Every structure is written in C-alpha cells, then in structure tokens.
Amino acid sequence: EDKVVQSPLSLVVHEGDTVTLNCSYEVTNFRSLLWYKQEKKAPTFLFMLTSSGIEKKSGRLSSILDKKELFSILNITATQTGDSAVYLCALLSGTYKYIFGTGTRLKVLA
Amino acid sequence: DGGITQSPKYLFRKEGQNVTLSCEQNLNHDAMYWYRQDPGQGLRLIYYSQIVNDFQKGDIAEGYSVSREKKESFPLTVTSAQKNPTAFYLCASSPGVEQFFGPGTRLTVL
User: Fold this and answer.
1) What is the C-alpha to C-alpha distance for residues A35 and A91, in angstroms, rounded to an integer?
2) What is the mean pLDDT of each run of 10 residues along chain A (110 residues)?
3) CB–CB contact A102 B40 (8 Å)
4) pLDDT at position B68, please?
C-alpha cells in the first residue's frame, strides 16, 4: 500500500532557528514529490522534486530528494513567524494520483 | 482573475440530508480533485477526474458522489450514507503535476 510519512508531526521553534522537515515514502510508480505550505485554508505550492540529489531553493527554503533512500527534506533557515503553517508532502503516483502525508505543523515564536 | 472557487465557505447540514459542494475553475485544467481534511490529518483523496465525463474513486469515496459534465465544474455530493461527513473539503485542479487548490468548504453535520 502506498504511504507517505512526515516527521515530526509538530514543531515549535524560535525566530531565527533552522528547521528540517522530513518526508519518507513507499509509493509504486513514483513520478514526483511535492511540498506545500498550508496556513489556513488552501495549500500553496512550494517545490516539486523529480530527480535525486538536486536541491531546489526559494529564498530561505530549500528541499532535496533521495530516491534511493525514499525520502525528502524541507529546510527552512532563519525562520520567521510567517513561516508558521502546516507543511504537506505529496507524492504523485502514476499520472494523476496524489498521496499526501499527514503534514508537519510548524509554529515559530517571536 | 484565474483560479479555483469553492462554495459555500461554511455549510451546516442535518443528519440524513444530502448536500452538494461546488467547485469551479477557469484555469483550463483537465484534471480536478476532491480531498477531505480532518483535524491533524493530511489530505485524503475522495474522487478525481482526468477529463470531462470521466472520474475515478479515490481512497475514501464511500458516501460521496461526483459529476464532471463540464471542464470547469466538478461538484461533490455528500450523501446521507457518509457516516462522518464533518470535515474540511478541498477541491484542486491540475494541468499536469502541480495542483492548485480552492479555498475549501467547511462542512458541519448537526
């Protein structure tokens, strides 16, 4: 059975800290791994990863995929209170089916 | 303005009633999806549609029904057969890999 596991489930840090969020998976017919940020309602897209070892960066956020060990990490450096959100990892299996993890709830304290 | 709209934002239903949640997109995407999100959980796939007049069951389709008569529209009916319908419902569309989400509908069964 396909599954996506995220850890930790929740995390509380102080502004300026660096955090690493994990996503491990067991998925047949892997196509892509996606990271989303969900603040209140609609998740917003962060990254899409398809190849191992290639880091994607956007400002203070970065992500990398390891297809051999079946995991991805999302790093956030110099965290700000605006980074507080649920971070979702999703696997695209086959052409159209997405499998989501339970998410990591990040709270950044001022 | 291009995007995905969902209505209503909040919906209250008495037990035993069917309700229909609306999802409309003007992004010209072929694929559309319905997810359910419960507190502290990730997104679980209810139904998805790759093309007009075609749709497939997701992981938790029991008690739900959909239609896809137009490319822009993918309404979800929550039937009385759904035992625990109180949840946050998210609709998404996709041109290929990245998904774009609507703002969601929060359904509460009284």
Assistant:
1) 9
2) 92 98 91 92 91 90 94 97 96 86 96
3) yes
4) 97
> In chain A, which residues have their Cβ closer than 8 Å to the Cβ of B100?
45
Query: Which chain B residue lies closest to A46 (C-alpha atoms)?
Result: B98
Residues of B within 8 A of A102 (CB-CB) are: 40-42
Question: Which residue in B40, B99, B103 is closest to A98 by CB distance?
Answer: B99
- CA–centroid distance for B84 within its chain: 16
Q: What is the pLDDT of residues B45-85, one digit of tens each?
A: 999 999 999 999 998 999 999 999 999 999 999 998 888 89
Percent of chain B with pLDDT over 70: 98
What CA–CA distance (Å, rounded) separates A13 from A63? Answer: 19
pLDDT at B1 > cutoff 80: no
CB contact under 8 A, A97 and B101: no
How far CA A79 is from CA of A39, A61, B22, in Å, comes to 15, 9, 37
